[in-house]
Design brief:
By secondary structure, this protein is of the alpha+beta class. It folds into five domains: 60 residues, Helix hairpin bin (Helix Hairpins, Orthogonal Bundle), CATH 1.10.287.610; 226 residues, DNA ligase/mRNA capping enzyme (D-amino Acid Aminotransferase, Chain A, domain 1, 2-Layer Sandwich); 83 residues, Nucleic acid-binding proteins (OB fold (Dihydrolipoamide Acetyltransferase, E2P), Beta Barrel); 163 residues, 5' to 3' exonuclease, C-terminal subdomain (DNA polymerase, domain 1), CATH 1.10.150.20; 69 residues, 3-Layer(aba) Sandwich (Rossmann fold), CATH 3.40.50.10190. It contains 24 helices and 26 strands. Strands 14, 15, 16, 17, 18, 19 and 20 form a seven-stranded antiparallel beta sheet that branches.
């Protein structure tokens, strides 16, 4: 039955009015009506939609709350990685950051955008044609969790952008947090009901966002502040970060009011001091401020290092400290095999939570700080940073038994603990067999750029390991439908899909397989170089450190790590097991001095969307032709391959006079053959 026109118009007016009041209250902090008046508007709209279901739209205010509890969170691969920030802890660190930016840009002074560093949980919001389509947590930066239903409950997040026409795609990055007033109100209600209270606002936000029932998330009245963007299509990105935040505010997003532009080290430190003085009066918890080079073109020019931008830094506030007794020193085996000494403490409240364990980082740090069992120590904690033992406050008896000695064997698997020359961290050599590393090893093995086993995510790996079904990657290939279907939230169809993905992964490539083994210091590019150089896995496994260094871009550290990995009998046993399970790949002859390709020795940057070629495909073809693909445009760049919506990288290339290629020209160059 068709919805009467007057009913549809009334529902549309109510929806617009409710969202307007949400914006006034949660974004502008300038309410015009009481809570009771808002409730009356909402109730009227809900009643109309109940009577006329055809009125319900994805961006209706009624869709913020009320979804059924989820069975679990699906994985989301971020279109643009969500990177972390480097930290600055002192004035000297800030001066060094400013100097690096000035030198990198060749300028006397650099303008920065200064803003708050929220103490919450980073998320990304994807809007398609102006409507919120998906929201996800940061996760590991590459992959997060789909928490769309929970994010819809946050009234500060617009369900529809204030733009006409809206962009085809816009990913907005920001922080989910609990305002102090909402934290106190929640705990007051919890105490009155005899329920468990929250420890601090950050835990409240993180726990609320990961509730399987969105109605429980809504009870925490979470907030959101936008601070950047990810992927975008059909949107004119402003030329500066400060203008970008203004544009996000115009689209309906809350952005921090405490922000400004500043020039040079003095301007940055002045902002830091001002915010530090006002910190306690702010409506939310922060653990520092963030400085970003303001001009987007200059951000592109500076580029990235590792997993952090060169053009931004987080200036952290001093950590909170407390004194307690160090009861014992144990060791913890990390997901990558790192052996970390851990202080077992008499519980002490510091940095918003009770701390009973704190990191001692490594053996050298213990010696430098002269930490012994039974000392009274200063424990430091800042925001969500892992608590650490900062220094000794008062020495204990210090008998010989109180001195820490690094164990010779891993407490998890019994494998030898080794410390490579030049490294501070000792590591378990258990590799593929250590229980502490098992889950991380399996997730890496199954990842998209490794063996690409779709559907094998965190939760399934947790279940497989905890149930004793999988101990090494080879065990994946012995799984059957009955074992998988018996796991929690794993239906028959889901089990079949996972088994099919595992089966497909048997047909691999040598570079993918080498990368999948998770050898320390061997990333995707190094795995390709090793595979090309040696041709076969057996030749690679037989190579000593000296022979390994003959491969392109393989230095002593990488060579030693690879040689040590293949020298371990248990790693060789797992590889043999994988081969026996049917995992195979094409092999060839060791690489000779290959003829140079069209891009030999050239640095290439990809930007925008190519008409027919995916980004990964273009990268692979360029690398096969001898080129190196990087993420930022600089004076060292030889070519920029540009598709639609290329943005700032294309602008930077034109400024520097760098040759720009379209897909047709790229294909033509790849097809060229060097004449003898």
């Amino acid at each position: 039955m068709a919805v009467p026109r007057e009913v549809a118009e009334r529902a549309a007016r109510l929806a617009r009015e409710i969202e307007r009041h949400n914006h006034l209250y949660y974004v502008l902090d300038a309410p015009e009506i009481t809570d009771a008046q808002w409730d009356a508007l909402f109730a009227e709209l809900a009643a109309l939609e109940a009577e006329w279901p055809g009125l319900v739209t994805p961006d209706s205010p009624t869709q913020r709350v009320g979804a059924r509890p989820a069975e679990g969170f699906a994985e989301v691969t971020h279109r643009v990685p969500m990177l972390s920030l480097a930290n600055a802890f002192s004035d000297e660190d800030v001066a060094a950051f400013d100097r690096r930016c000035r030198e990198g840009l060749g300028k006397e002074a650099v303008e920065y955008a200064c803003e708050l560093k929220f103490d919450g949980l980073a998320v990304t919001l994807a809007y398609e044609d102006g409507v919120l389509a998906q929201g996800a947590t940061r996760g590991d930066g590459e992959t997060g969790e789909d928490v769309t239903a929970n994010l819809r409950t946050i009234r500060a997040i617009p369900l529809r952008l204030r733009a006409e026409p809206p962009p085809r795609l816009l990913e907005v990055r920001g922080e989910v947090l609990m305002l102090r007033r909402d934290f106190e109100a929640f705990n007051a209600r919890a105490r009155a009901a005899g329920e468990k209270t929250l420890v601090n606002p950050r835990n409240g936000a993180a726990g609320g966002l990961r509730q399987l029932d969105p109605r429980l998330t809504a009870r925490r009245r979470l907030s959101f502040f936008a601070y950047g963007i990810g992927a975008q299509e059909g949107w004119a990105v402003p030329p500066t970060h400060s203008a970008l935040l203004d544009a996000l505010a115009a689209l309906g997003f809350p952005v921090a009011r405490e922000r400004r532009t500043a020039t040079g080290e003095a301007g940055l430190l002045a902002f830091y001091a001002e915010i530090g003085a006002r910190r306690d009066a702010l409506p939310c918890d922060i653990d520092g401020v963030v400085y970003k080079v303001n001009a987007r073109a200059e951000q592109e020019a500076l580029g990235f290092v590792s997993r952090a931008p060169r053009w931004a830094v987080a200036h952290k506030f001093p950590a909170e400290e407390a004194v307690t007794e160090l009861l014992d020193i144990g060791v913890q085996v990390g997901r990558t095999g790192a052996i970390t000494p851990v202080a077992r403490l008499a519980p002490v409240f510091v940095g918003g939570t009770t701390v009973a364990n704190a990191t001692l980082h490594n053996e050298d740090e213990i010696r430098r700080k002269e930490v012994w069992r039974r000392d009274r120590v200063v424990v430091r904690r800042a925001g969500d940073v892992i608590p650490e033992v900062a220094r000794v406050a008062q020495a204990g008896p210090r008998e010989e038994a109180d001195r820490f000695v690094m164990p010779a064997a891993c407490p998890e698997c019994g494998s030898a603990i080794a410390r490579l020359e030049g490294e501070a961290v000792a590591r378990c050599t258990g590799g593929l067999i250590c229980p502490a590393q098992r889950k991380a090893a399996l997730l890496h093995f199954a990842s998209r750029r490794a063996m690409d086993i779709e559907g094998l995510g965190d939760r399934l790996v947790d279940q497989l390991v905890d149930a004793g079904l999988v101990a090494t990657p080879a065990d994946l290939y012995r799984l059957d439908a009955a074992a998988l279907a018996g796991l929690d939230r794993m239906a028959e169809k889901s089990a079949a899909n996972v088994l099919a993905a595992i089966g497909r992964s048997r047909e691999a490539t040598l570079p993918r397989f080498v990368f999948a083994l998770g050898i320390r210091h061997v990333g995707e590019v190094t795995a390709k170089d090793l595979a090309r150089h040696f041709g076969t896995l057996d030749a690679l496994m037989a190579a000593d450190a000296a022979r390994l260094q003959e491969a392109p871009d393989v230095g002593p550290v990488v060579a030693e790590s690879v040689a040590r990995f293949f020298a371990e009998p248990h790693n060789r046993a797992v590889i043999a097991d994988l081969r026996a399970a049917g995992v195979r790949w094409a092999e060839g002859e060791p690489a000779q001095a290959a003829p140079a390709g069209a891009f030999a020795g050239k640095i290439v940057v990809l930007t925008g969307t190519l008409p027919t070629m995916a980004r990964d495909e273009a990268r692979a073809l360029i690398e096969a032709a001898g080129g190196k693909v990087t993420g930022s445009v600089s004076r060292k760049t030889h070519f920029v391959v540009a598709g639609s919506d290329a943005g700032a990288k294309l602008e930077r290339a034109r400024e520097l006079g760098i040759e720009v290629l379209d897909e047709a020209r790229l294909r033509a160059m790849l097809e060229e053959r060097e004449t003898p």
